[in-house]
Amino acid sequence: MILVFCCAVDSRALEMGKGIRIQSESMRALDQSGEIRFQGQVRVDLEGTRMECDRLDLQISEGDPPEVYQGTATGNVLIVHGKDRVIADEARFDLREGTVELSGTPRLERGDATITARRILYRLQEGTADFQGQVEAEFEIPGD
Amino acid sequence: MEDPDPVRSRARGRTVLAAAVLAAILLSLLTRTAGASEVRISGFSFVQETGRGPWILEAQNALLQEGEGVTLEDVSARLADSEGEEVGVTAQRGWYDPAHLVLELEGRVRAHRGSGLLLVGEKMTWDQGKGTIQVQGKVEMTGLGILVMGESAVYDTTDRTVLFTGGVQAILDIMGEKP
């Protein structure tokens, strides 16, 4: 049950340099620190994956060309990929490490199945997810 | 009583002095052209000393009107920010208020910082007193590895931040390639 925004930000997308489309009410770019902040009804689209949140902070390297290497989505985070939905308070993306960490009682939904945990760590290269702390899973039993 | 901020005070003093000098020049020109209420200048160039460094204004044509500022055609303005990078704007038309250090621009309006950040819009106001460049109307920004569109943007020349508002849309590449 691997889904998430992380699915779209997979290694193939990284290699191909796929563009991310972001909509929000406002955006502030801090030229000195290489930080960009999107605020208010933020929506991110990438290769069929959608993410919504209240605020999105991105870190951009000073290299030429500049590179987005880190991001944090906070507040009412919702990630939708196909039939899968992830709900969390915060999602931290580290594109150099290839990880996405979901916190704030993240919940993973696919159809009637739900998994909750204190923290979910997704490793992009391996395509694996670790559910940590008070993990609870609910599945519908066929024929029940 | 001691001035709490002598640097700002001196900057204000220079600004007032520069505005007074420009006003005197304009008055002198108006006086010399007896009976004329306006003066036209080709190849207009003017350096305004401000608390943020010299602000250079240039225009292909300028129309000086007594008490109404300066109307400009094919305008450009620039200054060097605290890091030595050039911040500049260009436009087809403009209007300059020397008393308040405000330059209003329209028509193919573009603002840049160095060779990186570029803002394009329909109208622009450079308020050198506040140190801000406000761009309005279908604003686009490129640079920083990102393309941003919105209804309005304000660039702060002091802390070098840009704030976009109104239906913001951005396209960026996680590999840093130009969108």
SSE arrangement:
The complex is a heterodimer of chains A (144) and B (179).
Chain A: H1 4-8, H2 11-16, E1 19-30, E2 35-46, E3 49-60, E4 68-81, E5 84-94, E6 99-103, E7 107-110, E8 113-116, E9 119-123, E10 128-132, E11 136-138
Antiparallel strand pairs in A: 1-2, 2-3, 3-4, 4-5, 5-6, 5-7, 6-9, 7-8, 8-11, 9-10
Chain B: H1 6-32, E1 38-50, E2 53-65, E3 70-80, E4 86-97, E5 102-113, E6 117-127, E7 132-142, E8 146-156, E9 161-173
Structure report:
The complex is a heterodimer of chains A (144) and B (179). Chain A has 144 residues and is mainly β. Chain A has a single domain, classed as Sandwich (lipopolysaccharide transport protein A fold). Chain A has 2 helices and 11 strands, in the order ααβββββββββββ. In chain A, strands 1, 2, 3, 4, 5, 6, 7, 8, 9, 10 and 11 form an 11-stranded antiparallel β-sheet that branches. Chain A starts with a helix and ends in a 6-residue tail after the last strand. With 179 residues, chain B is α+β, with helices and mostly antiparallel strands. Chain B has one domain: Sandwich (lipopolysaccharide transport protein A fold), CATH 2.60.450.10. Chain B is built from 1 helix and 9 strands; from the N terminus they run αβββββββββ. A 9-stranded antiparallel β-sheet of chain B has the order 1-2-3-4-5-6-7-8-9, with helices on one face. In chain B, β3 and β4 form a beta hairpin. The longest helix of chain B is centred in the N-terminal third of the chain and has 27 residues. Chain B is globular, with a radius of gyration of 18 Å. The termini of chain B are far apart. The interface between A and B is medium-sized, with 31 and 29 residues.
